């Protein structure tokens, strides 16, 4: 039994949480006859202070409990509900205290000073020896409190939450929580059999932080905070700063500390050598819990790195792994911002997975969700009885789309919470990037709101200036503290300067998802080939604004769920045409300016929509399935696309400058043909040609630079091993001195049906 445990007559309900016994402060009992060893009655507590202590709204229980010098000796007072007796033990000291009722015990000992002491607590059928939590000084330093008060504690997780530690020579756990509106806070957990009365916390002044060091409490302990609201009612809450939590639907916080030894020093030292927008970046997006349903973090570490490495992706992007109560939210409704979900293991298990990916040469991007949080009554919503993390204005607090709450970005402590959280994932888990979800919903006061449902900012505009400041501070802080980390915005509007540096007035992101490109190109390929000529500009329009930001081209989870169909199922025609268009589209995407992101299952053209319950349709790759070869062919293409892409600096070095791209043919709407050149910094080139019609085009002439003597085919999505018809250029092509598309030389090509072909000098 833990040194601080004590039996309790209460019983847990079905949720695993023990209802707090109904307690009413009552008049002190008549004192028992004085125990032996010279113990005399201690000064009695006043009725009001006694009630505040027992009812959980005392701001300084350390002033009442513990030991302190008093006229005539040292007064001891202990709060131990359900105890039959409490005895003070020390060197040459053993003195039983008076029972004052309601779990309070006290006595005045004829001592010249406060000694080193312990408590012997006797219950009906047990007796334990423990340290007194109320003999310890605060375990949180003045600098921490100052930084918290300023809203500038960039390692906030080291100051708030639960921290196993040695304090004044004793092992235990420091509990700290920010609850400025609370009348009182008590920590409760399995160490007290979920009875909250015994452990009131002390207020550390104007910062709104409450603190208590509990000796004998260590890693693995489950706990929550019992908060007395301003109206005197109680609410029991999980720790907003918890670094580990129970497996949902249980929701207690868990004391934890990391013991992982990182083995990725080489990766960490070199990951930032080349800026991401000038480096190869090909991202495999996945939902960890359903990639291989049932696998733990450590089991994933055995399978995921090898799979991603074989396919040639440079990074994985993990849908949010922060703790969340409802699996169907995919992690986008977070309740534990500092806790990797315990569904697949411990925080150190997650570190092990990141470490394994790094050792395989694969970067890790994690989705981060600062836009909103759910209303669960045990989590952040009205945490201490009033709006705290959410905006105080109900119109600003309620997210109109998701039934959730928006953060109060203008409050310094909330901004600190979010900025520190971003840093936390980068420092503590070595992640290489944060993809920030739903940025557009943060930036606009009128996002999904009608007239009269929002209030303009101080300049009369619709911009959420507080959110802008938060994003700028987050980006600046992450880039300063975490070299080599990238931040990526999911921002679906034309907000100017998303990837512009903060000192130039931008938001400071490294990259931005190009949602316009995604919607436009998917609209084009979903049309029957005969109708595509009327939508030709959907494939070319992105080049009008391609250099306004540093872009990622995302085919994400959002595009393959909720009736949108999988990528291959968006394509018209029979199964051959669908796969061919799928392959041609990926070839076009990998050659287009911008980085690539592809959601799991689309790399092998699964036909069904993604479900978080079942994950990808791995069974279609099984050799016993008649069409397995079709799906394996698409996966082989994705592998070859990534390898050819990484080997061709022309496809990634100059993604964000006009000098890296030139159209060869942008107007062949009737032919459904697109052709463009890509250029590396050293002038080396790649020619990409896409034919989105189901016919072979013989003798198709395309203009090329005259200085290149020969062009060879380096990738063709119509190869038979990918499932294509095998129309190829097996020999290098020599340009003719025939002008075409404004160039003095040209190639005479045979364009395979529904295919993309890459050529290099």
The low-confidence runs, each spanning 5 or more residues with pLDDT under 50, are 1-36
Number of strands: 33
Query: What characteristic shape results from the CA principal axes?
Result: elongated
Q: β content, as a range?
A: 15-25%
CA-atom Rg in angstroms = 32 Å
Summing up helix and strand content along with how strands pair, one would put the structural category as alpha+beta
Describe the structure.
The protein starts with 46 loop residues before the first helix and ends with a strand. By secondary structure, the protein is an alpha+beta fold. The protein is elongated. The longest helix has 19 residues, at 628-646. It is built from 15 helices and 33 strands.
How would you sum up this structure in a few lines?
The chain is elongated.
């Amino acid at each position: 039994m833990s040194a601080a445990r004590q039996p309790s007559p209460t019983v847990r309900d079905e949720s695993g949480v023990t209802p707090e016994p109904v307690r009413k402060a009552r008049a002190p009992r008549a004192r028992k006859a004085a125990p032996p060893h010279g113990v005399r009655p201690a000064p009695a507590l006043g009725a009001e202070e006694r009630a505040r202590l027992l009812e959980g709204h005392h701001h300084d229980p350390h002033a009442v409990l513990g030991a302190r010098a008093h006229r005539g000796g040292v007064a001891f007072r202990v709060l131990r509900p359900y105890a039959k007796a409490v005895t003070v033990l020390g060197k040459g000291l053993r003195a039983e205290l008076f029972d004052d009722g309601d779990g309070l015990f006290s006595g005045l000992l004829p001592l010249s000073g406060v000694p080193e002491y312990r408590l012997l607590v006797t219950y009906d059928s047990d007796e334990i020896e423990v340290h007194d939590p109320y003999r310890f000084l605060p375990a949180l330093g003045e600098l921490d409190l100052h930084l918290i008060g300023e809203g500038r504690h960039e390692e906030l997780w080291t100051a708030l939450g639960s921290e196993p530690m040695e304090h004044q020579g004793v092992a235990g756990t420091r509990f700290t929580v920010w609850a400025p509106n609370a009348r009182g806070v008590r920590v409760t957990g399995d160490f007290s059999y979920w009875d909250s009365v015994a452990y009131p916390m002390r207020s550390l002044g104007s910062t709104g932080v409450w603190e208590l060091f509990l000796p004998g409490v260590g890693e693995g302990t489950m706990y929550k905070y019992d908060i007395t609201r301003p109206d005197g009612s109680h609410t029991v809450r999980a720790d907003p700063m918890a670094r580990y939590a129970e497996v949902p639907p249980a929701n207690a916080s868990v004391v934890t500390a990391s013991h992982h030894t990182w083995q990725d020093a080489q990766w960490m030292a070199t990951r930032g050598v080349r800026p991401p927008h000038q480096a190869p970046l090909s991202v495999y997006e996945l939902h960890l819990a359903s990639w291989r349903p049932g696998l733990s973090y450590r089991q994933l570490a055995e399978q995921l790195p090898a799979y991603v490495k074989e396919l040639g992706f440079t990074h994985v992007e993990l849908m949010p792994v922060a703790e969340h109560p409802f699996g169907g939210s995919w992690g986008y409704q977070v309740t534990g911002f500092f806790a990797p979900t315990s569904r697949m293991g411990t925080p150190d298990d997650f570190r092990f997975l990141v470490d394994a990916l790094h050792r395989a040469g694969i970067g890790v991007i994690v989705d981060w969700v600062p836009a909103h949080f759910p209303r669960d009554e045990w989590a952040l919503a009205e945490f201490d009885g009033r709006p705290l993390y959410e905006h105080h204005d109900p119109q600003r607090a309620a997210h109109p789309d998701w039934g959730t709450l928006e953060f109060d970005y203008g409050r310094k402590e909330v901004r600190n919470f979010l900025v520190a959280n971003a840093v936390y994932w980068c420092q503590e888990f070595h992640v290489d990037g944060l993809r920030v979800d739903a940025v557009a919903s943060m930036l606009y006061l009128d996002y999904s709101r009608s007239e009269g449902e929002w209030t303009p900012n101080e300049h009369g505009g619709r911009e959420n200036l507080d959110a802008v400041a938060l994003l700028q501070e987050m980006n600046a802080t992450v880039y300063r503290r975490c070299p080599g980390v990238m931040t990526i915005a999911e921002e679906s509007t034309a907000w100017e300067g998303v990837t512009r540096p903060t000192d130039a007035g931008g938001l400071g992101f490294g990259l931005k998802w190009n949602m316009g490109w995604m919607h436009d190109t998917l609209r084009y390929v979903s049309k029957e080939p005969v109708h595509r000529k009327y939508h030709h500009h959907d494939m070319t329009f992105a080049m009008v604004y391609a250099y306004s930001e540093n872009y990622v081209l995302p085919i994400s989870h959002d595009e393959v769920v909720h009736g949108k169909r999988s990528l291959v199922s968006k394509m018209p025609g029979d199964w051959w045409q669908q796969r061919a268009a799928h392959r041609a589209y990926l070839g076009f995407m990998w050659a287009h300016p911008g980085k690539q992101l592809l959601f799991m299952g689309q790399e092998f053209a699964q036909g069904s929509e993604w479900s978080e319950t079942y994950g990808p349709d791995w069974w279609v790759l099984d050799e016993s399935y008649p069409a397995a070869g079709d799906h394996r062919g698409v996966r082989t293409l994705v592998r070859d696309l990534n390898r050819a892409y990484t080997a061709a600096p022309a496809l990634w070095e100059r993604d964000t400058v006009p000098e890296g791209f030139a159209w060869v043919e942008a107007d062949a709407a009737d032919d459904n043909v697109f052709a463009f050149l890509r250029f590396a910094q050293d002038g080396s080139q790649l020619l990409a040609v896409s034919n989105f019609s189901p016919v072979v085009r013989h003798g198709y002439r395309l203009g090329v630079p005259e200085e290149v003597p020969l062009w060879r085919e380096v990738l063709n999505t119509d190869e038979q091993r990918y499932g294509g018809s095998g129309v190829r250029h097996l020999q290098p092509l020599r340009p003719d001195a025939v002008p075409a598309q404004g160039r003095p030389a040209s190639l005479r090509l045979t364009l395979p049906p529904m295919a993309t072909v890459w050529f290099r000098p």
